[in-house]
Structure formats: structure tokens, C-alpha cells
User: Fold DUF1853 domain-containing protein from Arenibacter nanhaiticus.
Amino acid sequence: MEDKNLSRFIGFYETPPLWIGQLNGIQQFVFPEIDFKDFKPQPLPTNLRLGHQLEQVFFQLINSAATYRILAHNTPVRKNKISLGEIDFIVEDLTANLLIHIELTYKFYLVDPNIPEEQQQLIGPNRRDSFFRKKEKIINHQIPLIYSPEGILALSDLGIAQEALQHHVCFKAQLFVPFTNKSTTLPSFNPKCIIGYWFSFQIFESEGFQEFEYYIPAKKEWPIPPHKDVIWSSHFDILPTVRNYMKNEQSLMIWIKKPLRPIEKHFIVWW
Assistant:
């Protein structure tokens, strides 16, 4: 297996965008091709949360692309010394001679087909966030921040005119459909994002799961493709750990190793 640091970059790069083109007027950023044979990543700080690590991953990957130049990232926007938010990235497309404001998002969503509205079916593993709420925040806060007097001032300090910017998102996601309804489809979204299932603890306890081996990845491992070079546990040995997660109302990602099959990535939910 490639070194752990590089695997985070490859995992991020290979995660598909949640949609292609535009969704509700939000333009998806087209990621440049990266040749990993020549890519030498800088170490990622281990004390960063996953979201901040992935900002560093995005920065290094775009920085390595010959077609783009990063002009600004994590630019604070303040009013009377009070933070109103940050502008994630401003990049120059050297081929098209464009300036692009990019908001970066990387999510793990479980699909709940019991919710009638498709965009609201994508929910966080613990049901505390959703795609719909994130989309509304992008439309109603993150993009308008650029147009606020404080946003215009922050840009002018960088020598960038607000009216010269196009607005894109780099919105990558891994989606998990219900184990009990595997045929679930999402017409508005990229089907390549569906990579696994979610199921209840009761299903995980059942006889059909007892013969396989398991690994619970740390959250910083969630973006990477599952691989065999970890310490695997039997169903019997891992059951108490999973039960603890459930008692604490925490859903968890789990890798499943089956004989002669690719390693699978799923979620066990507490709800």
C-alpha cells in the first residue's frame, strides 16, 4: 500500500463530485487531472480535524496543477473585528484566464428514502446535518459574503475585484444507501458517489454478518479507499466496541473483509 499521507490525497482526488455541472445554480468545480507519479505531498499536520486536513489536501493538489494558481485561501471576512466567515479559495484558471472563488465541501451522507424531498434525503451519519442545509448555507451565506462590503474590502486588500470572480464549489461526497433498500436512486446526484450501505445495529448483530472480519477506521481514514493493511477483528471481538458506539448515539464507519471479495465500506447507525 502507498504511504498513509499519500493515500489521503488519492482518496480525496478519487472521491467524485456530488453533481456534475450546475445544481440549483451552483456550479461544480472541474478538478484538474493530477499525475500522482510526480506528486510529492507535504506531510499533513496530525492535529488538524478532518475538514481542515482536506483543505490542506485541496491546496497541495491544486498547487501542483499547471493550469491553476492559488491567489488566496481561508481569507477572513470581518466586521468591527468580528468574524463573518472565510472565503475558502480564490484561484486563477491560467488556461481560460478566469478568477474563480471556490467553496470546498467534503461530506459523508446516508440516504434516507423515507424523506419525501430528494435533496433532503442526504443526511449526516448522526442526522445532525444534511445536504439541503449545507446547500442553503452556500447560497444564502457563503457566496453572498463575497458581495458584502466587508467581503469586497477583504478582496480589495488582496488586489482582487469582486466582479471579476466566478463562483464554484468543489463539493465531493461519499453516499451510503440503505442496506434494506439497495435499489435507492438519486436522479439529481452523481451515482458514482454511492459507495456503500448503512444499516442498524440489529442487522449487524444478525447471523449473516458473523463470518466476516472488521475494522473501524478513525475519522481521518474515512476518505481513503479501504485496504487490507490494518488490524482486523472478528465479529465476536468487535461487537462490544460497536455496541458502545450505539449506546453513545454515535454512528460509525466500518470496513468489512469477506473472502475473495473487495473490502467494503459501510455505516452502522444508532438511530
Summary: The chain has a mean pLDDT of 96. DSSP finds six helices and twelve strands in the chain. The two ends are 35 Å apart (CA to CA). Residues 185 and 191 are 8 Å apart (CA to CA).
